[in-house]
From TrEMBL, chain A:
Pfam families recorded: DAD
Location within or outside the cell: Endoplasmic reticulum membrane
Keywords: Endoplasmic reticulum, Membrane, Transmembrane, Transmembrane helix
GO cellular component, one term: oligosaccharyltransferase complex
Organism field: Polyplosphaeria fusca
Principal place of residence: endoplasmic reticulum
Recorded family membership: Belongs to the DAD/OST2 family.
Protein name as catalogued: Dolichyl-diphosphooligosaccharide--protein glycosyltransferase subunit OST2
UniProtKB/TrEMBL annotation, chain B:
Main location: endoplasmic reticulum
Protein topology in the membrane: Single-pass type I membrane protein
Protein purpose: Subunit of the oligosaccharyl transferase (OST) complex that catalyzes the initial transfer of a defined glycan (Glc(3)Man(9)GlcNAc(2) in eukaryotes) from the lipid carrier dolichol-pyrophosphate to an asparagine residue within an Asn-X-Ser/Thr consensus motif in nascent polypeptide chains, the first step in protein N-glycosylation. N-glycosylation occurs cotranslationally and the complex associates with the Sec61 complex at the channel-forming translocon complex that mediates protein translocation across the endoplasmic reticulum (ER).
GO CC aspect terms: oligosaccharyltransferase complex
Name listed for the protein in its UniProt record: Dolichyl-diphosphooligosaccharide--protein glycosyltransferase subunit WBP1
Spans traversing the lipid bilayer: 429-452
Domain of life: Eukaryota
Subunit and interaction comment: Component of the oligosaccharyltransferase (OST) complex.
Localization terms from the record: Endoplasmic reticulum membrane; Membrane
Residues making up the signal peptide according to the UniProt record: 1-18
Pfam family, one: OST48_N
Annotated OST48 middle domain residues: 314-453
Length: 143, 464
């Protein structure tokens, strides 16, 4: 959710910025090329404008989503025999993802107005504490 | 000194118990004292086996089956007499009370004598039916003794009985032929599982009353093998009652008599059969006894090696679901004068039920070892996945054997929180364990990179 949101947040500005040159240069080329250029534009804008820490957060969230999806896939294919193990493993991923998303919202410079009382350092400390709690619960739950 | 004393004590004990498993006081109810001679060999055999015979007439005033509310005798033989009643000491009620106190009764009938009403109603109470008309007897035109009953065909010559069913022990086996003169046939009710025939009439036999003048027997009391010459009843408390259709077969005259069956000269083996019959009725055979009963948790090889005690704790009151349990029961059988190892008939099994209301397990117990006078049966099984109050139950009831009814109550609890297998012991969980630790490792790496990237981040911010 969060990275998409972030992308869509940055998308309009990126689109508006890159749409005029794209339209003028490749009018004759097909719709597919058009879409490709839009995506490319979005990507370039993202790479260019996003702060490094937010990129790092997005990377980590992508990693978590992949790990979670793999666990879920394994559960579907092989079965959920030690069900508590599946719940622990999968919820570790989901919980970490949610915590990371919260951190991303709180530390994103674009949201500064909304979190004036919460400094990025404070948000990070909360995040680390919450993560430890989550890991503790998951490890105990899997027994 | 002590050893000598114990040997003496043992000798004393064995001398006392060298008779029936329940005692040796035997009452013989015989009306005519003069008839005593006729049963001389029969009584002699009983005395030789250790019974103390008291011969009383039913008319005797001192005759009583009970004394101070307890049995005065352990066993009773009722022999037929001339009079129609047996008197106030031997009513149907007293006979049944005697059986309720675990006394054994052998009733001998005879077609020559009237059957007393008290015996009639006792038998009716037990669902054993005898012909109501006096003088009815069993005849067989094919298996009779042509020596003594050439005309009347009322002395049957029969082989010793076979086992009642293939998987039931036969306590009445023997060699030779049994002569059954002038027998009163009995039929057994279908309802009672306590009744069992000992000696059945052959297929060609039938019961009729010679006083009927008709040439053809119409509507006979019973025919063929539904007619029993000797039948038995064993009550739930294992008291035994045997009905012998012909008292004459217990008399000296037929104990080792020359007879002729279908032209062949044979010798009757009534003495043997009478011995088998009284042995069973007076509980010298077919008595099973339960010794030690143990059950314990099977700890497995690895745990046994760790503990110094080789024997696990016996008969615990609590077990866990899905744990291995071992059960052992020691059963002996009384045979003539001592306890011998008991083995069920081939094809038969003693079974253990592990039950809560209904059995969750019903398992065959197999003999695992034998001592001098008992067999140890055992089985090991896994407790079911159900917690609650369970019973180890052995309920063994077979024809001609005293019943075994043993029950031990135990609690079966569910897993304690630390008894579940750890996650890494289940290979299926490894993927998800991996999932957790990859997440944790990812988190640690992320935190490291995050902290490392802090200054550049700030500079980026500033440039923006």
């Amino acid at each position: 959710m969060a990275p998409k949101k972030a992308q869509s947040h940055t998308a309009p500005s990126a689109q508006s910025a890159s749409s005029t040159p794209a339209k003028s240069s490749s009018k004759s080329s097909g719709n597919a090329l058009d879409a490709q250029e839009i995506v490319l534009g979005v990507w370039n804008k993202y790479v260019e404008k996003t702060p490094q820490r937010v990129k790092l957060l997005d990377c980590f969230m992508l990693f978590l989503a992949v790990v979670g999806a793999l666990q879920f896939l394994y559960c579907i294919i092989v079965g959920n025999f030690p069900f508590n193990a599946f719940l622990a493993g999968f919820s570790a991923c989901v919980g970490q993802f949610v915590l990371t998303a919260s951190l991303r919202i709180q530390t994103n410079p674009e949201n500064k107005k909304e979190f004036e009382t919460t400094s990025p350092e404070r948000a990070f400390a909360d995040y680390v504490f919450g993560s430890f709690l989550l890991h503790f619960f998951c490890v105990n739950f899997i027994n | 000194m002590r050893g000598l004393f114990s040997v003496l004590l043992l000798a004393l004990v064995s001398a006392v118990s060298a008779v029936s498993s329940t005692g040796g006081r035997l009452l013989v109810v015989l009306e005519e004292h003069s008839e005593r001679e006729k049963y001389g060999v029969f009584f002699g055999d009983l005395e030789a086996r250790g019974f103390h015979l008291t011969i009383e007439s039913p008319k005797s005033e001192s005759l009583s089956l009970f004394k101070h509310g307890e049995r005065a005798y352990d066993h009773t033989i009722l022999l037929p007499g001339k009079s129609k009643g047996l008197g106030p000491a031997l009513t149907a009620n007293t006979l049944l009370d005697f059986m309720k106190k675990e006394g054994n009764i052998l009733i001998a009938l005879s077609s020559d004598h009237a059957i007393p009403t008290s015996i009639h109603s006792t038998l009716l109470e037990l669902d054993i039916h005898i012909p109501s008309d006096k003088g009815a007897l069993v005849v067989d035109h094919f298996n009779h003794d042509s020596n003594k009953a050439a005309e009347k065909h009322d002395v049957l010559l029969l082989p010793f009985p076979q086992a009642l069913k293939p998987n039931v022990k036969n306590y009445f086996a023997g060699e030779g032929l049994i002569a059954v003169p002038q027998a009163v046939g009995q039929t057994l009710g279908n309802e009672s599982p306590l009744l069992a025939p000992i000696l059945r009439a052959p297929n060609t036999a039938y019961s009729y009353n010679p006083k009927d003048e008709a040439d053809i027997v119409e509507d006979p009391f019973a025919v063929g093998s539904q007619l029993n010459l000797v039948s038995a009843m064993q009550a739930h408390n294992s008291a035994r009652l045997t009905v012998v259709g012909s008292a004459e077969m217990l008399q000296n005259a037929w104990f080792a008599e020359k007879a002729t069956l279908a032209g062949k000269a044979v010798k009757t083996a009534n003495r043997d059969f009478a011995a088998r019959l009284t042995e069973w009725t007076f509980k010298e055979t077919g008595v099973v006894k339960v010794g030690k009963l143990i059950h314990y948790q099977d700890e497995g090889v690895s745990k046994k090696m760790n503990t110094s005690l080789a024997i696990p704790e016996h008969n615990p009151t609590i077990y866990r679901i899905k744990s291995d349990v071992n059960f052992q029961i020691e059963i002996s059988e009384y045979s003539q004068d001592r306890l011998a190892p008991f083995l069920p008939a081939p094809g038969d099994h003693v079974q253990l039920e592990f039950s809560m209301l209904s059995p969750f397990h019903r398992l065959n117990l197999s003999p695992i070892s034998q001592t001098a006078n008992s067999t140890i049966f055992g089985v090991s099984f896994k407790t079911p996945d159900q917690h609650g109050i369970f019973n180890f139950r052995v309920n063994y009831r077979r024809p001609f054997l005293t019943s075994i009814e043993e029950k031990r109550q135990v609690t079966v609890r569910h897993f304690a929180h630390d008894e579940w297998p750890r996650s890494w012991q289940i290979s299926g969980a490894w993927v998800w364990i991996g999932g957790i630790w990859v997440t944790v490792a990812g988190f640690v790496a992320f935190v490291a990179v995050w902290l490392y990237s802090a200054p550049t981040e700030k500079s980026v911010k500033k440039t923006q």
